[in-house]
Amino acid sequence: RVERERMVRSSNNEAPALSPHESAKKAMSILASLTQSPPPAPPPPVSPSPHKVPEPPSKSAQCQPWSKQDYFQRLKTFSPATWFDKPAPISAMQCSRHGWTNEGPDRLRCDSCKRKLSMTIHSSLKQQAKENVVKRFEEQLVTSGHASLCPWRENPVPSGLLQLAGSSTHEVMGAFQKRLRTLLQCKMLPDLPPEFLSSDDLAHTMEACAWPKRKPVDAGVLLAACGWEAED
Description:
By secondary structure, this protein is mainly α. The protein has 9 helices and 3 strands, in the order ααααβββααααα. It has helices at residues 2-13, 20-35, 68-75, 92-97, 127-144, 169-184, 194-197, 200-208, 219-225; strands at 100-104, 107-110, 116-118. The chain has a 3-stranded antiparallel beta sheet with strand order 1-2-3. Strand 1 (100-104) and strand 2 (107-110) form a beta hairpin. Helix 6 crosses helix 9 (219-225). Residues 48-59 have low confidence and may be disordered.
């Protein structure tokens, strides 16, 4: 009797039995809770970078030796303030012919190969030393200053392309002689400094007018060569 009461009491404390369908449903619920992964954590906020993203490099300027417009665009970068008193072999026109632009006092830049040059001629140099420096600078303009694969290397703007329309040698000489005749009629002309008469600038000026090298140059000749004439 006592054993029977214990069995009855034990059976009353147990949970009621589940049906097979409910048992399967409960098992699937427990399995799903065990296999389900937690939701991913949100990504951390991205703060803006303090460094500026570099811009892509600009496309190199094209080498167009037959473009007169490009030549004059390069020539416009030169001014007396940044390219002053340079000998004819490294003048602004010669630099522009070989693809160089002026980016500051005595400084050049090639927009094709990005090379840069500095051409400062110290006034303390003697004549022979100055000529050697100019010769070295001229070589840099033409070849060594450019990169080895630069299209401007030994490929300048043709000099014939830069000749103005109607400015043949015959016409230049004719206009020069006409101005000179008017100046020779003047009773007085300004004196020329002796150092200027032996300068390279005068030699190149007279060469442009096809003036014979051994023929003397006076004030009237020089003024006519530079475009001056006397009025009546």
